[in-house]
Specification:
The chain has two domains: 168 residues, Rossmann fold, CATH 3.40.50.1970; 203 residues, Dehydroquinate synthase-like - alpha domain (Dehydroquinate synthase-like, alpha domain), CATH 1.20.1090.10. The chain contains 17 helices and eight strands. The chain starts with 9 loop residues before the first strand and ends with a helix.
Length: 385
Amino acid sequence: MASCFVMPARSVVGTGALKQAEDYLKEYGRKALIVTGKHVAKSVMMEELKQTLSEIGIDFVIFDGITGEPTDTMVEEGVMIYQKENCDFCIGIGGGSPLDSAKAIAAMVVNPGKIADYNGKVIGGKLPPVVAIPTTAGTGSEATKFTIITDTRQNIKMLLKGDVLVPALAIVDPEFTVSGPKSITAATGLDALTHAVESYTSKKASPMTDTLALSAVKRIFTYLPGAYRNGEDRRAREEMSLAALEAGVCINNASVTIVHGMSRPIGALFHVPHGLSNAMLLKECLGFALDGALERFAALGRAVGAAGETDEDRKAAEKFMGALEELCRACEVPTLEEYGIKREEFFAVIDKMSQDAIASGSPANTIKEVNAGDVRAIYKRLWDE
C-alpha cells in the first residue's frame, strides 16, 4: 500500500550548520521570534544565533519563557509577544520543549481560539515558517508534524498534529549538544530510541521508515553509551544527532505506539521529563507488544548484534529486549520509586492515566490489540516487577 512521506523542506546537518543555513534564513522574513528556555538563552549557542541573525540583517526578539515542558499558558504568552513585536517567523532553539513551543506558537498566530481547542484535531492554516535548532539529540521535534503541549486546565498532555507543523528548516549541529548534562543525554537519547523502535513496530511502518528506524536504532545502541559517559565525544554526539533526526522523521510518518501513549500521562501528572518516562516504560510496554510483532523485534535484535542470524525469531526478540534493558542500565534510568514518585499516589490515578493513554490514540498503532485493562496492568507492573 502506498504511503505519504513527510519531512522538513530543508535540513542542514553537521558542524557549522547554522552558518551554512544563512541564505535559507533570509527567505523567512525580517524579524524572528526566538523561542527558548532560560538556560539556552544565556548560552554560547544563543550568542552564535544572535550574531548570525544580526550579520544577515534579521531582527529578533527573544521569548525565554519555556520552563520545563511546554504548557498552553506559555504558548499564549509567546503568541502575544509574536503579535506585539510584528514577527514574521519563529525560531525554536533548545530541547524538545522550545521546539514544540515554537511550532505551537506559529499555529496559534493564525488559528482562532485556544490551543486546547485543537486537541485531537488536525491543525491547518498557513503558518509562519518555523526554524528548529535542537541542542539535544533525541526528541526529533525538528523533523516532526507533532507538538506536545500540556493543557493546564485538564491536566493532560495534548498531542497536536498537522503537516503544517513540520519545520520549514531544521538546523542540526552536533556541537550544540556537547554541553548537555548526562541526565539530558540519557533521557533524550532513549527518547530517540523509543521513536525508532516504536515506528519500526507500528502498524503504520513503511519501507522508508523501516530503513531510517533500523539505522537510528543501530546508531543509538552503538553511540549513546559513549555520549553518556563522555559528553565531549564528538563522534558519539554526531551520530546521536543523526539518529535523533532519523527517528524524528520515522515517527512523523509511522507514528508512535504504546510507550508514548502511556508515557504522556506520567509526565503530565508527575512531571517526569518525557524521554525519561519513556525509558521507564520500555521494558514493560515493549514486552507487552512483543508477541504482536515478533519478526520485527527479532530483526531489531539482529540489527544491534544481540542476536545472530541462526536465532529463531522469539529468541532474537528476547535478546533484543535483554540488550535494551542493558542499555537502560548503562544510562542509569531510575524506577518510578527511585525518581521519587509515591506508590499510593501513582495507583490513585492509574484509571485516569489509562483512559488518557488510550484517548491519545498512540496505543492503537501497536501491532497488537491494546485496551484500557492492558494499560492498567502495565502501569501496575511498573511497581510489582
